[in-house]
Amino acid sequence: MAKLDERHLDPAVALAMLGDAAPRNPHRQFALKHSDCFIVTDDYGDIRGRGDGLFRDDTRVLSLFRLLIGDTEPSLLGASLSQDNIVFTANLTNLPLTPDKGAPTPQGVIHIERSRLLWDDRMYERIRLSNYSAHDVELPLSVRFEADFRDMFEVRGSTRTKRGKAFDIELGPDHVQMRYEGLDELVRQSTISFSDRPFALTPDRADFRLNLLRRDSLSLFIEVGVDHLGTPSRERHRAAAAKARWRMRGKRRHGANVHSSGRVFNDWLSRARADIALLTTDLPTGPYPYAGIPWFSTAFGRDGVISALQMLWLNPGLARGVLSFLAQHQATETSMFSDSQPGKIMHETRKGEMAVLRELPFGRYYGGVDTTPLYIYLATAYAKRTGDLSFIDLLWPSLNAAAAWMENASQQDPYGFVSYARAAETGLANQGWKDSFDAVFHADGRIPKGPIALVEVQGYAYAAYGGLAELAALKGEDAKAAHWQACAEAMRISVERHFWMEDRNFYALAIDGEGKPCQVRASNAGHLLYVGLPSPERAQLVTDQLLSAAFHTGWGVRTLPDDELPFNPMSYHNGSIWPHDTAICAAGLARYGARDSVVRLMSGTFEAAVHFNMRLPELFCGFTRSPSEAPVAYPVACLPQAWSSGSVFMLMQASLGLEIDGFAAEIHVTRPRLPIGIDQVSIRRLSVGNVAVDLHFQRVGDRVVAYLDPRHEGLAPLIVRS
Length: 722
Hints:
The chain is 30% helix and 24% strand. The termini are far apart. Strands 6, 7, 8, 9, 12, 13, 14, 15 and 18 form a nine-stranded antiparallel sheet that branches. A five-stranded antiparallel sheet has the order 1-2-3-4-11. Strand 16 (200-202) and strand 17 form a beta hairpin. The chain has 722 residues and is of the alpha+beta class. Helix 14 runs parallel beside helix 17 (647-656). Residues 305-609 form the Mannosylglycerate hydrolase MGH1-like glycoside hydrolase domain.
């Protein structure tokens, strides 16, 4: 068992170690997903084997897949995803073709349309060829392919001293099967099937000679799955597309929908909602938003909770699914390898060969210090949003166990903080949301000694205790309510006393194992505002700095201001912009009444999304915004990423000042604001108690008014505070 090289947790570093080829560009990559299967290709529709591929259960089952015309890459016209994220389409054309006999074919007369989708662990592709030349063409078309069956962590850069056995590739008249037996004794296989028989089929290539009549078209169908299930065809392709679209329509109908008066702004809303639906996987416990494609297409505790919090006001069913899954996988024993302790909530789960063999601890890993308090906080927020105490009753034993873990962790710390120190060298050294190896440091750049108490984690614990106290009071458990309220107050006092830096008017990033604060200003303090821990005076001081040029680039809030020593706008966590982090900070500003500043942050985030084709990546570089320049992409960011997609909805809620009181079945709106350039926003099918209503926000002069649709007046009280 090798020690984890934590540089590989940042895929940009890991992939750079693999060779001299250029790293992938996330905004030029296209992803499709269904269940635990996903594919990432370039805009040609090709897989080139560098971080991209077709993946199933954390294993790359197709590592090369390239279309050639006459041994030459065709010319790209354009590529796109359908609005519902079901179909990827690449439009290509030919370069000049000189056959052995007959007239040459000039460039740009053959249109090549690649149309692809995933359904039921299977890739379906149609290659439609149209001849716009004045003569018939014998078109030489080739498909190159490989399957390396690499574990996701190998793709990300981890090395293994030993791998399993690759079988000889089996060739049929119209299909090829590749198989690999892992060290876990599981045989993984990938089969490529063609609608037409190739005139030549080898273990890594299929060659076709297609007679394409002038002004005519023909289609070649390809399927890639576990087995050869028959000859691919137009009917099979259409049937899979119909099923995939029907399933996606069902996902997108869950919860309320947001619509605005801005056409381009609506494109952002629609793409974000489609991406969340794409990443949401239907598990036996309910829907769960997988973190992101390609590196994190699995259930993460922290990411799932934050994504559910972002969507809670619109779709509380997502939070219910996340809570159910995490409760089912709550730790019941102590394990140094998996960093588990009774009551702790899972950080990550994986299904690949390396996880099964326990070469790495991520099969079911608990090395996240913030996931447990966030889990409790989500449960309390879900109860407030829905009034669904019957579900809370089912979770109550799990919530008590999670609270007991927090209290036990606090008892190990001299200041009563929830801190972390990895239990085994195979685990993560840093266990907050900024979990890269260099994300926590002292002002002079030194790496602190553990255990580490992160400032935002104490805020999450404060909110968890306070929410539990309210739930216990509702359940008539007064002793528990008083105890947890006391825990919340003790945490608040300790944070204010030990994290506040008087000389910098800000909260320290962390406190190390020697009781010394890491006197660094970072966006983590914005998460304290989100949960409402700071005093109003200190909250204002933090707000002023988060909105200053050191933090706010014009595109969003940097994770680290540009005047801190380790600042690097191209780093993973030390100066980059994470949209979900900006959204949490904005929600914190809104909590303290700075709603106009929220509108400013939302405007910058929207304008960044426009430059990224309406799809916010996991992160992007933290360079200061300049006139006429676009935000700078991070080379290997996940795209899509659930909590980046959900950021627009957290920002929107913070701008509108909208809260749902599920116990009273009331809608509360406080000092609403609309995004810049938007005069009207409608929330359709917003659930309040047992009813669903349409809620409208309208700009009237310099005010924003909120009102229920006339059809729904009287169904739910609307309380507006201006």
